[in-house]
Amino acid sequence: MRTVLTSIGGIAIAAFSINYAQAQAQAQDGDAGSLRETVGYDMPAPVSPSSATSTVSPSSVPQAMERLSRSDTMADLSLGTIYAGGKFGTGSNTTIWSSALGARVRLGDVTLTASLPWMRIESRSTIFTGIDATPVLVAPNTAASKRTAKGFGDLTLGASYTIAPAASPIEIEVSGRAKINTATAASGLSSGKNDYAIGTDISAPLGKVTPFVSFSYRFLGDTAVYDLRDGPAASAGASYALGHDSFLLASYHYSRAATRLVDDAHELFAGASTKIPGSPLRVTGFATAGLSRGAAAASAGLAISAGLGHRDAL
User: Fold this and answer.
1) Tens digit of pLDDT for each residue in 235-289?
2) Degrees (nearest 5) of the Cα angle 304, 309, 313?
3) Strand partners, 163
4) If you write DSSP's letter for every residue of 181-213 in order, what string do you get?
5) Within 10 A of 112 (CB to CB), how many other CB atoms are there?
6) What digits encode the pLDDT tens for the residues 74-116?
7) Comparing C-alpha atoms, which of 218, 211, 287 is closest to residue 11?
């Protein structure tokens, strides 16, 4: 796993160094405009596709994989679904279906988001709905046989602010999220408590390649049975623009286990997103591969989103 992380970091650093050196050389030759213009963007102050959060979910992924301008006023809706399976360090398989309706409104540098999942979890273990419709594994093998929990999970609300100085290639997004207990107790999907997270996403949109790192810290509400651990989640990777409306993204993700009864999660992520020509619709596909017992062995998802509002011409 250390070799994988080293490779990802090396690719991101190399891409950053090459593009930044080219930009500096062009600027020294007397080209007009800001550093953002010298690296080849033809749109003002772009907001690059990145991890957006350090989680992989059917709501956060489609919202992350689209490049917007800071002057855009956009609203979009997305419907995504993800299937995950694995033993999660236990002696039996767990399967998780998670579908989520997501909404996002962008007003200049401010972005507001919301998502509500419908989930179906078949497992012998205790698993709750987490922030952005991600499953939170709490304890393994808490039942003698597999149980099925299904229904609407907890609502997540989020807000973020983007800082992107015109003279710098760096973009910084600071964010906060709250998972509100809206699931019924009978569904078995919720801890019954609210969870919160704060985070920072740093990216460097340089030409077609955008390296990024993302960090968040989760505050999980304790239940009557379990004391859940607060802790970090992080990701690192890069996106690649195939054009103005199509992107590829690869990243590594980590999240601390919610209790000491399970292992931390390490996984690799790959995704692709493209806009359907002549329509406001965007299609996004993605998959993960687990690198630790605390992560799903594998997962795959698909989402479709529709954008409404004013966008600068690309």
Assistant:
1) 999 888 888 788 888 999 999 999 999 999 999 999 999 999 988 899 999 999 9
2) 95
3) 172
4) --S-GGGT---SS-EEEEEEEEE--BTTEEEEE
5) 14
6) 788 999 999 999 998 888 899 999 999 999 888 888 889 999 9
7) 211
Integer Cα distance of 173 and 182 in angstroms: 28
The helix/strand/coil state of 14 is: helix
Q: Which two tokens stand for residue 136?
A: 């939170």
Q: Which residues of 50-59 are buried (b: 16+ CB within 10 A; e: fewer)?
A: bbbbbbbbbb
Residue type, 271: G
- Kindly report the number of other CB atoms within 10 A of residue 2's CB atom: 6
User: For residue 145, with 0-12 CB atoms within 10 Å meaning exposed, 13-18 middle and 19 or more buried, which class applies?
Assistant: exposed
- pTM to 2 decimal places: 0.79
CB contact at 8 A, 212 and 204: yes
Q: Supply the DSSP symbol for 275.
A: E
> Would you say 82 and 259 are in contact if contact means Cβ atoms under 8 Å apart?
no
More confident residue, 14 or 282: 282
Distance of alpha carbon 151 from alpha carbon 133, whole angstroms? 12
| Strand 73-86 relative to strand 94-107, pairing | antiparallel
